[in-house]
Each structure stands twice: as structure tokens, then as C-alpha cells.
Amino acid sequence: MHRTVDLKVHYYGTPVVLLSTRNPDGTANLAPMSSAWWLGQTAVLGLGNSGHTTANLLREREVVVNLVPSTLADAVDRLAMTTGSEHVPAGKAAKGYRFEPDKFGVAGLTPQESGLIAPPRVAECPIQLECVLQQAHTIGVPEPSCTTFVVDVVRAHVAEELIIPGTEYVDPVGWDPLIMKFCEFFGGGRNLRPSALAEGWNMPHERSVPAPAKV
Ligand SMILES: Cc1cc2nc3c(=O)[nH]c(=O)nc-3n(C[C@H](O)[C@H](O)[C@H](O)COP(=O)(O)O)c2cc1C
Q: Which atom of ligand 1 is closest in space to residue 195's alpha carbon?
């Protein structure tokens, strides 16, 4: 039996990526996001218009899409309530977001030079995609609130141990992506840790199984 529901959120479970972009002063910004999908060598990224990454990507036209393994859930959670924008938008401030100029430092992640573009890769991410902007479309009515970025993958880096020997393919068994499902973190099908994003969004905590303990 189905029931009609006024669904508040449509985050059904997508891989988490970390987007590295170049700030106006040449330093790097890093932001977690999960509204990403791929077709051929093109990636489509959905970003809110108030984000610093959105401004950086529109201006610099380059981004590294770093695919996050489930083992980096803690690092992503440390970035969850941050923005690279000095002026934190009111809606974000109300949820507890703060300005953070050193995203790599806060996350405890290591910048690694890219080959073809300016923004650095995240060394700890086993799959890193250097991308250049092809198109940007604003979406949302009556006021545009988001931007859909269409980017081309110009170079892909994959950790040796994830490449099926003798091929140019990623080992699907070895690759365990961090999944964001309804603002919670999952890996290997399991709920991994509490999520600051879920807390900021006041996601209900009644569940079919108990949430993992705070670490
Ligand atoms: C796991 C996770 C997934 C997220 N997915 C998205 C997303 O798909 N699109 C988006 O605009 N923001 C997403 N966010 C929120 C951004 O990370 C947040 O707006 C952040 O402030 C952006 O940083 P920036 O302003 O420095 O770019 C996500 C956050 C987390 C923790």
C-alpha cells in the first residue's frame, strides 16, 4: 500500500564528492556535495547559488571532482557546516554554518597539485577528476536558487590499487563510495556516523534501526 506524501527531501543516496576550486586570492576552496552524476566524459553538478564554490566555478571555470571513499566520512562531516564565503548567507547562518578559509586544514586533508588545471586534488581521495566548465544553467522558480554545472572530465586520476590490473577500469568491488542518503552518511550499506548536515537540517531521528553512536 502506498501513501501520498509531501516529501521534504529527495536525497535518495548519491556518492559524495569534494569539489576543489580556486579562490580569487589563489588559495583553494573545498566543498562537499552529492548532487553529481556522469554521462560519458561529462559530469553534471547541482549547486546552490549562495555557495562559494558556485562563485569560484563561474569565475575560474575549473574544478576537481574528488570522489570520496566511505573511510573519509569524518573529514566530510568536519566540512559540513562551513562555507568559503566570508559573508555567510542568513539561511545558512541560521543552520549553524560558519566561514572557513582553510577547508583542507579543517578537514585534515592534503592538497595535491593537478596536472591540467589550477585547483588542487584531494590526495586522500582515490578517484580525482580534473574538470573544465562547459555550460552553466540557473534553475529554480520564481527566483533561480541553484545552478546546474555541466563540466568535462579532462583528466582522471585513479589510485593504482583500485585499477583492475591490465585495464583502464575501476574495480567496482574495491571502490566503496561514501553515500549521502537523506543527509546521513552510508558506506557498504551501513549508516557510518552522525551527520552534522542532518542535524543542521533538523532531519527526524526516528529510524527503523538505531543510529550509530557518536565517536
Ligand atoms: C554530504 C553533503 C552533501 C552536500 N550536497 C550538496 C549538493 O549537492 N549541492 C549543494 O549545493 N550543496 C551541498 N551540500 C552543502 C554544501 O557543502 C554547503 O552549501 C557548503 O557551504 C558549500 O561550501 P562553499 O560555500 O565553500 O562552496 C552538501 C553538504 C554535505 C555535507
A: 31
